[in-house]
Every structure is written in structure tokens, then in C-alpha cells.
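for the recovery benchmark. C-alpha cells below, seq after
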């Protein structure tokens, strides 16, 4: 039995209108263009990627202050082979640590906490180099050990790389000096040979026969 309630009939008509597809297309008011985002990590490969929370030591307040929670990475440059540590906050992606891993660096377990470790670094996260003492805390002891082992391995490998670089530079310098010395010897030898030739007596065309020296040419009649 059909309902005679006007409100009920109006509701049915409204529902039917909502389900009806008119096929009309509405053009967007604002056209959004695709924007490429660069992170500065395009030329680097991540050799470590872990979740952690970072702290820095405030010398003035003599206390640890939270720097941010997010992802810490060790990034190796594809061409130079240099490795840097970068950590970004999880939500804002703001950089809270950014420094090279150098041969002089060492990481140590934080006293009384096996999930944390500390190290010194010349950090560039704020746009200028600052000597910082960092402490990083992981969710597990395993992650902390993985970080420490990889950090130390990278530092040692960078040291060997610098030694090889210095050795190659020294070898190149010695080779250059040897080549220059050889050139100097060849030059000296050429000069000596030239001087000897200049001192040699004249040839047959320049010699005067002593027997013929006193002879006078016969006069022609």
C-alpha cells in the first residue's frame, strides 16, 4: 500500500534524486601541477635505515635535550664514496642531524642503557657547523648494536680510504719528481754533447798542409 504521508513521499523523491546519475562533468576550479620533490639524497645509497630518537647535550643547561624522533640513515655517495649520517623527524621530515662520518669519530654505548649510544660530531643540521654531542636511543638492543657496528665500520673504512689516497698522492709526487729528474739529466747530457762538438778541431776542409804552407803558387807566363 502506497504511503500518503507527504513527508515520507518527499523523502523517497529526494533519495531517488540522489541515486540518479546525470552524467554531468564538473571541471576543477584549480588545476594542480605535479611537483618533483628533491631530498638531496638522490646521489646517495642508504646503507643503514633505522627508527630512533635523537638527543643532543646542552652545555649551558648541562642536560640532554630531545632533538627529534624519526629515521636515522647512513648514506654513501655514489661517486666520492663518502658517508654521512642524516636523521629526519618522522612527521615534519625536518633534519635533526646531518654530518659526515670521519675516521676520527668513534661511537660508544651510553652508560647504563644498552639501547643507546653517544658520539661527537661537527653537525650541519642548523645550516652551520656545530660541535655536538649526540645520544641516540633505539627500540631494541639489536638495532643499537647494528648502528654502532656500521658506524664504526664506516669510520674505519674512511680512514683506510684516506690512507690509500695519501699513498697514491705520494706515489704520484715521487713519479713526477723522477720524471723531472730524468728530463734534467737528459737535458744536461745534451748540453754536454753540444759543448764537446763545438770544441772539436776543424775537418779536412779546414786543415792546412804544413808542406804546402811554404809553397807559393807558380806564376803563369
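predicted aa per position
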Amino acid at each position: 500500500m502506497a504511503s500518503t504521508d507527504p513527508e515520507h513521499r518527499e523523502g523517497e523523491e529526494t533519495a531517488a534524486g540522489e541515486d540518479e546519475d546525470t552524467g554531468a562533468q564538473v571541471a576543477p576550479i584549480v588545476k594542480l601541477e605535479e611537483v618533483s620533490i628533491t631530498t638531496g639524497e638522490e646521489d646517495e645509497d642508504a646503507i643503514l635505515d633505522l627508527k630512533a630518537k635523537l638527543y643532543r647535550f646542552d652545555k649551558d643547561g648541562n642536560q640532554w635535550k630531545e632533538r627529534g624522533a624519526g629515521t636515522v640513515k647512513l648514506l654513501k655517495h655514489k661517486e666520492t664514496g663518502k658517508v654521512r649520517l642524516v636523521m629526519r623527524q618522522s612527521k615534519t621530515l625536518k633534519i635533526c642531524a646531518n654530518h659526515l662520518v670521519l675516521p676520527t669519530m668513534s661511537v660508544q654505548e651510553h652508560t647504563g642503557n644498552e639501547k643507546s649510544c653517544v658520539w661527537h660530531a661537527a653537525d650541519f643540521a642548523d645550516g652551520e657547523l656545530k660541535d655536538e654531542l649526540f645520544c641516540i636511543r633505539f627500540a631494541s638492543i639489536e638495532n643499537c648494536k647494528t648502528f654502532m657496528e656500521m658506524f664504526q665500520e664506516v669510520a674505519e673504512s674512511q680512514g683506510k680510504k684516506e690512507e690509500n689516497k695519501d699513498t697514491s698522492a705520494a706515489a704520484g709526487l715521487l713519479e713526477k719528481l723522477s720524471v723531472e729528474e730524468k728530463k734534467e739529466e737528459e737535458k744536461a747530457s745534451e748540453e754536454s754533447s753540444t759543448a764537446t762538438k763545438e770544441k772539436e778541431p776543424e775537418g779536412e776542409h779546414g786543415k792546412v798542409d804544413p808542406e804546402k804552407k811554404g809553397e807559393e803558387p807558380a806564376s803563369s807566363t
